[in-house]
Each structure stands twice: as C-alpha cells, then as structure tokens.
Amino acid sequence: MDRRTSLSLLTVGLATAGVSAAATAQDTGGIKLMVLYGQPPNPEEFEKYYLGVHMPLVAAVKGARRVEAAKCLPQADGSPPAFYRVFEMWFDSPEQMAAVFDTPEGKKVRADVPNFTSGTTVTRLVCKLD
Known about the structure:
Blueprint: H1 3-9, E1 31-37, H2 43-59, E2 66-71, E3 85-91, H3 94-101, H4 104-112, H5 114-117, E4 122-128
Antiparallel strand pairs: 1-3, 1-4, 2-3
Helix pairs in contact: 1-2
C-alpha cells in the first residue's frame, strides 16, 4: 500500500455516525465525507500510528468510489495551516457510506480513531456533491 492510499483510508470510519438518509445525494454526484484533523500534540507519534497502524486497517475497508488524504502545508506567510491533515472519501449515497462502515473492517477503523487523536480536534463533514 502506498502512502497516499494509506492516508486516504484513515478517515473512512470517522464520520458514519449521524449520517441519515435525509442527507441523500440522489440527484447529484453522490456524497463526500471529509475529515479535518487539528494539529496533534506530537506530530511524529501521530504520523507513526496513523501510517503504521491505522491506515492498514483503513486499507481493508472496501466500497468507496474515491479516497484522498493530504498533509496540510503552512500558509503563504509561514503561519501554521488551519488543519494538520485532510481526508476525503466519496460514496454514491449516505446509505452506501453507512453500509461500508457497518462492515467488520469499517467498525475496526472507527474503534481505532481514539488511539491516535487524543489531544487534537477531529472535524467531520458529510457533503452533498453538486
């Protein structure tokens, strides 16, 4: 598994709670799950766990049509970015996303998140694609 794939898969399980059919994307290109990670207290430890432990769990999750992850860069003036990492995952519908995260693999990913996010913020968004 390459680094991009491993980073992309991390947040798959983070935003399934609270997703309802009312947020349906039937008339559009689907939905996108976004997870925004704040600056961790110890970036080296975060990266080690994220890439070495969590992302292999995420790689086992199947069913998304597209995944991307990125590490945020400093602002143009050199100030820290608003977020440390960003993760995005695309699905056809809220129901598909919920089904993906209801698998044993999806449940493992969700259960693992607290193991590397203590002391940082985790912001989850589910967006309807235009």
